[in-house]
Amino acid sequence: xxxxxxxxxxxxxxxxxxxxxxxxxxxxxxxxxxxxxxxxxxxxxxxxxxxxxxxxxxxxxxxxxxxxxxxxxxxxxxxxxxxxxxxxxxxxxxxxxxxxxxxxxxxxxxxxxxxxxxxxxxxxxxxxxxxxxxxxxxxxxxxxxxxxxxxxxxxxxxxxxxxxxxxxxxxxxxxxxxxxxxxxxxxxxxxxxxxxxxxxxxxxxxxxxxxxxxxxxxxxxxxxxxxxxxxxxxxxxxxxxxxxxxxxxxxxxx
Length: 254
Prior knowledge:
Blueprint (H helix, E strand, L loop, with lengths): L1 H21 L29 H5 L14 H20 L3 H24 L4 H16 L3 H29 L6 H40 L11 H26 L2
């Protein structure tokens, strides 16, 4: 079963690549069929085999020779591995497996769209919020209220950070998409989980930004999208949240 879920993850990852390319361009993710963005030629069935086709084609379009971004096999592999992780996390139980796979998929789309275009698709955020609240509702009112509180808390924290940054720097430091993404994380992870996710997000963002500054790839004050850090923090919390929270409480509070 776990091998099937890995292959399914590869297939879903291929679809996520379509979403990552088309959503920021406000194109339909259903029609037209997959094609080369340069020459417009429809892709053949052999060109659509997840992960394998990229290497068979040597990273180029069969028709025009345009280079294919390595992001395509990367997203497919990440989704396949992520689906395996979710299968293990859920113990193979159907409902958690399906819903957590949706959460994982939404965060992968958000991660790469924001990384490439500095925008977070509203559709991915809305899907994440609704799915998260519905999923937690299935486990009873206490869990649902934690999810609802987490969604509100996530928005409030990033709103206050955004407001403070606007007052201090005289410009926006966070976009509305970042605030909605915090709502997504809270709706899935609850109030304790969203705190951990936001903390991890800023830690990851600081490490990456410091590396970019030292390497000269960005300059001080230059805008760097925060969505990828939030998405990464959310995924880490999904898989390791209870252990991280328990470790923090043991070391610093108990």
